[in-house]
Amino acid sequence: MSSSSDIATDESVGKAPIEITETKTPCQFGFDGVNDAEVDDSYHGQFTRNDRRDMGRMGKIQELKRNFRPFSALSFTVVLQGTWEVLLVATSQGLVDGGLAGLFWSYIWTFFGFGLVVISLAEMASMAPTAGGQYHWVSEFSPPQHQRWLSYFIGWMSALSWQAGQASGPFLVGTIIQGMLVINDASYNPTNWQGTLFVFAVVLVIFILNVWGSDAMPMLNNAFLVIHVFGFLAIVVTLWVLSPRNTADVVFTQFSNTGGWSSMGLALMVGQISAIYASICSDAAAHISEEVRDAAVTVPRTMFWSYTLNGFLG
To answer: With bands split at pLDDT 50, 70 and 90, how would you rate the model's confidence at 42?
Structure first.
């Protein structure tokens, strides 16, 4: 057994000064609030640990590039929803069934009512940020015994709605182009087949941008957002200064039922389609979840703020 004399003491060993150096890693947080040190810069593009965790939990493999940051995701959703543009060209149903007052008040209650839907969808997008959106959420959050058939049904409903949207958007743009030709060229005689070709041309442009211009989509959407906001200001100011004005009584209290429905209430419900059409597509951010960086945070915020911004512009 060792005696106390065999035990090394400070005097026998000597005190050597210990130098402690503190290394500080510089903060690398970008404007989007994501730590760049936690970002994977592989081909599939700048996904965070949260993205990897969410994809693994949902049993998915990262196949798409995450090119969208918070601002470009917001730009994409705001421009796609395009509330004030829709209200300029698709208000005929509301004016026929409800009139000016009906169109105004149906937009107000639709905005607040549909806002609750958007908040609910945003919450689900934060829990399951997947491009599948609604059909995936149904399969994950509905009762287990009903998940399969409900997901199948919602998946087909979603696919049909995408096809309908793809048909209605290019149709509006194609007919607007044809209408501009009629206004600016008195000799032009529009025909239905020419309008159809304009629609096909718009679809072709969309196809080219999505297939070969996907890397440039974030920057393009940022530019489109600028046009969206300043175009709204230019049109509103022009109409405010040059257009004839109705009295407040006409705008807010005079309802009309020129569609021939059995009651004013039914006419308002039918005319509400104009307000609904202007309020949809805020969930588009969910369908690019697998292309958005830090999607569980960015996507729900994008859905909420894009709907709010477009709602006030409408």
So the answer is: low
